[in-house]
Amino acid sequence: YRKKASLYNVRVEELNAVTLERDDIKRQYDELRTKRQ
């Protein structure tokens, strides 16, 4: 059970990192778009 829990935590951390990256990219894209208008 402990092994599964730690594996789950690793997955969650990976997911959080990916989500943060995506939000960052989206924010940069939105900034560029608003500047262009």
Secondary-structure map:
Blueprint: H1 2-36
User: Overall mean pLDDT score?
Assistant: 93
Instruction: Give the ordered list of helices and strands.
Output: H
Biggest sheet statistics: none
Strand tally, please? 0
Give Rg in angstroms: 16 Å
- Can you tell me the overall shape? rod-shaped
Kindly state the percentage of residues in helix: over 70%
Q: If helices are DSSP runs of H or I spanning 4 or more residues, what is the number of helices?
A: 1
Structural class by sheet pairing and helices:
mainly alpha
Beta-strand fraction estimate: under 5%
Low-confidence stretches: none
Distance between the termini: 54 Å
Description:
The chain has one helix spanning 2-36. The model has no long low-confidence stretch (mean pLDDT 93). Helix content is 95%, strand content 0%. It has one domain. It starts with a helix and ends with a helix. It is mainly α and 37 residues long.
